[in-house]
Write a structure and sequence with these properties.
heterodimer; A: about 110 residues; B: about 110 residues; 4-stranded antiparallel beta sheet; globular
């Protein structure tokens, strides 16, 4: 049973437009959320994070929004650039129970078209 | 720092053979994580260590899998005997804080078991 779901396996966006990637989670105990970006033949790299006490975090072109009541988070990239083409993973964790590993979604392949 | 180093980058072996994957975390990081990525299950946590001690191995799929961390700069993930369903990309990651911190991933080892 997947605790973190990214329902769009792929997303195509035109360069310069906004990219919106979505993620849903089922466990209300999750209290920290991250987005990772992955290029082919490389490991995932950290992009941006948000804790459950916030509903928005912004870093340059990247903004993450958290809706706790809906158990939903999204990543906005604006404007989208060709270098943003990659697989984006949503990841979550919770501080209780001593579990420090991340639970990942299956990823969304973002394709930025020129 | 060179980042997290994994070896080999690619491994092709026959069913029944022993496979050993290696990881060197970033110096000074107290946490080390092993993840596995497959098409079906995405990225999943196998095991993680804190200060060289295994903390949670609940993600290890079977007794055929074992992991060790003999010192702060080296960890191994061993599969014995290997099976075709073990074919996946195995990532090692490290972090310096208790999970709240960003996890830094290595480039991964692509394992193919024939």
């Amino acid at each position: 049973d997947q605790q973190v779901k990214q329902n769009s396996p792929s997303l195509s966006v035109q360069e310069g437009r906004i990219s919106i990637l979505n993620c849903d989670y089922t466990n209300s105990m999750f209290d920290y959320f991250l987005w990772y970006k992955k290029y082919p033949a490389e490991g995932p790299t950290f992009l941006i994070s948000i804790s459950s006490i916030k509903d928005k975090n912004e870093d340059g072109r990247f903004t993450v929004f958290l809706n706790k009541s809906a158990k939903h988070l999204s990543l906005h990239i604006v404007p989208s650039q060709p270098g943003d083409s990659a697989v984006y993973f949503c990841a979550t964790r919770y501080s209780g129970g001593g579990a420090d590993g991340l639970t990942f979604g299956k990823g969304t392949h973002l394709i930025i078209q020129p | 720092d060179a980042g997290v180093i994994q070896s080999p980058r690619h491994e092709v072996t026959e069913m029944g053979q022993e496979v050993t994957l290696r990881c060197k975390p970033i110096s000074g990081h107290d946490y080390l994580f092993w993840y596995r990525q497959t098409m079906m299950r995405g990225l999943e946590l196998l095991i993680y260590f804190n200060n060289n001690v295994p903390i949670d191995d609940s993600g290890m799929p079977e007794d055929r899998f074992s992991a060790k961390m003999p010192n702060a700069s080296f960890s191994t993930l061993k599969i014995q005997p290997s099976e075709p369903r073990d074919s996946a990309v195995y990532f090692c990651a490290s972090s310096e804080t208790q999970g709240w911190g960003e996890q830094f991933f290595g480039p991964g080892t692509r394992l193919t078991v024939l």
